[in-house]
Amino acid sequence: MPFSTPLITPSEYHHATTTATTPQSDPNSHLPRIIPIAAYLPSLHASFSAAHLPNTRFLPLHKTYSSTSPYPCTLPTLSHFCSIMTALAIRPTDTLVIYDAVSIGTYHAPRVAFMCQFFGHRGDVHVLNNLRGYVGEGFPVSGYEMGGKEGEEYILPASGVDYARVVEFEEVRDIILQRQRQRQKQKERDTDGDGSGSGAGAGDAAGDAAGKVCIIDARIPGRFSGTESEADPSLRAGHMPGAVNVPLARVLDPVSGAILSVGELRGVLAAVGILVRDYILTCNSGVTAAALDLVLRLVGAKGRRRIYDGSWMEWTRRVGEGEGLIVHA
Description:
Blueprint (H helix, E strand, L loop, with lengths): L6 E2 L1 H8 L16 E7 L4 H6 L6 E4 L17 H10 L7 E5 L9 H10 L6 E4 L2 H6 L29 E2 L1 H23 L10 H10 L1 E5 L3 H5 L18 E2 L16 H10 L6 E5 L6 H10 L6 E4 L2 H8 L11
Parallel strand pairs: 1-5, 2-3, 2-4, 4-5, 6-10, 7-8, 7-9, 9-10
Helix pairs in contact: 4-10, 6-7
InterPro entries: Rhodanese-like_dom, Rhodanese-like_dom_sf, TST/MPST-like
GO molecular function: thiosulfate-cyanide sulfurtransferase activity
Protein name: Rhodanese-like protein
C-alpha cells in the first residue's frame, strides 16, 4: 500500500510515483498501479491540457452521472460505472489518486473517490490534496495526453456495491418526522408536568434513534438559511429541520483550496458539536457531501456515515408544502 491515508499530499504522491519499484512503466505488469484521475468538468479540458499529473486519465464528470435519475449528479448504475472505468483502461486492482483542476482546488475529487468505493473498486482510492499545491511545489506535470487506451473489461460483482453508504429520500424524511413527533411528545409531557418520559414505547425508541443522527449540509450559508434564492427560482430555498450547516469552504484552506489539517478539521466540527454521532451528509446535488464524508473519515469519526445522494435537488422537489420539512434560519 503506497499511501496510508485517504488524503495524500503532493510530496507523498511524487515520492510514490517516482520510486523504482512502481509498475507504472510496464504495460504488461499486473501489480497494482498508481493511476491518477483528473475529475474535471468538460469546460476545464483546456486546463487539463495545459498541465496535469503524468499518466493521468481524464474523467469528464458529466459521464459519471446517472442517465435515468431526474435529479442532477446522482450515482450511475454499476454497469455504467464499469463502462467508464473500462474506457479509462483502469483495472479493479489499481490504486487510484483523484484530483481537481488547479482553478477548482477541491470540489469534485472526493465525490469521484466516494463513487469508486461505493461500487467496490478493489484497489485503494485516494484524493490528492491538491493539484494546486502540487504545481506550486514544482513537481513535474505533463502537457496534453489523454492517458490510457481502452483495455480489458473492468468488471465488479453486484454483491460488492456498498449500499450502506447512501441513504434514500424516504428514510431521511422518516428520520426527520420521527424527531418532530418525539419533540412534540416531550413538549406535551413537560406541559403535563411529567418530563420523566414514562410510558415510552416503540415510537419513542424510534424517535430516540432518529435523534442520534446528525444531518450535515455542505451548501453555502445563504442557500442553507433561505436568504439566497436557488439558481432555479422555481425551487424552494432553506434546509431540512435539524440540519447543521458546514459549508465546503469551512473545511478548505482559503488560499490553496486544500482540505485543512486534521487538527483544524476537528476544530471546525467540534465548534458545531458533531463529532460523536451517526451522520447523514447532504448538499445541493450530492457532490460536496462526499467531501464531508472524507473529512469525517480523516478525523476518525466513529459514527455511521451516509450520503443522501439526491440531496437538496430532490428534497426541495419532493417534500410537501405543508409538511414543515423545509425551514429557514
